[in-house]
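I had to read the description of the data format several times before I understood it. In essence, backbone conformation is discretised, so a fold becomes a row of integers matching the chain in length. I therefore recommend that a typical entry be quoted early in the introduction. For illustration, here is how one protein appears when written out as sequence plus structure tokens.

***
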Amino acid sequence: MENLNKKDLDIQAAVLNLSCMQEQVLASYRRVRAKAALALVSPRAQQLMAQYGMELQTASTLLVPEGCQLAMQNGTAALQKGQTVSQPTVLVVNGTLTLHPDCQDALESYAAVQVNGELVYPMGMEGMLGRIQVNGSRQAYRPDAVLLDKITLDRTFLLRAAQGAKYDAAKLVALEENVDWSLAASKQLDFRVEKAVLRNSAMESLLGCINPEAKVVEVPDGMFYTRQNQLDKGLLLQSRRIFADGNFAIDAEQAPLAARLEQLTVTGTLRLDERLADWAEKAAVKARRLELVDARGDCLEDIGCLEISRAMLEQAEFGLRIEDCASVEFDEDIPPELLREKIRSIHDCASVEGTAEQLAAVRAVCRDVADISARTPSRTSSRINQRDLDTVRITAASYTL
């Protein structure tokens, strides 16, 4: 009878700290369920979870000392010599973590370190990296080099650089015109980068100063370099000769702007409304890959969790295009026939969820979707409402139980 009066506890968190968990907390609930991207679990917490049947779904788990503290940083963070912590602490960085030379004492003072993004570390410290869990990329730099986020080469940079200076960065950009690039070679400058974007006139002078394994993008003189992925008026104000590094898109509504382009080069995929196919054949357009798309319909893009209802589909006269969303979910009352009629495309989304019949209707228009998962139909509304009354729900970026 006592158990019938207890409620369930549902927790959803990006980071869940269970290292401080007390037995009386678990004992006060009928059932405890938790979902997290990262869970910090102590040996004592493992025992309690097994004893009380706690359900835990997690992408990764770190075994840490009991009572461990959580230090979370978003964006950029760095570890330097002497920056130690006195209490057992887990450092979670959502972004970029830079390790400075001789920071071993700071790194060893943490119980664990997780990086969701990029780890930047000095060469020679590879033996210490086993303490760091990295979900993303790693970039090594030379301890005797100047470490920069990005190297923008221009006349001022070259004049100020010391003889024989070394520079490390993810990217180097040299796009100014009428610069004496031979200064880099005469000063014996040494650049180590992952990618170099060079003006055509700078290639001969700068290539010898850049590590040979770097990816090189050559930009013709007179063209405007951009990482922008869509044509607009602002871009045309810069130049009518565009060099787009990456993917690029032009919709039918932008046809008047496209007509003003004198030259367009795209290093990735050029996505064109199919109504612009004739223009592309006649214009000075170059692309690694050309993709003609049926761009009719409303576009829903850059949405974290997108829930599609039947009303949304019925009101979309020309259908829906869905792009760059973390997750897409279809309400259960949407018939597959309506989805087949109204969903024109689903591009670059992490997950798409619906019933098996719904997913069968949209699978053909999915492109670059990481996960397509069928869900079972939910229980009746009365049972759902009763469960809501009997459940304590907690949603947080980080949570300590």
In short: The first strand starts at residue 8 and ends at 17.
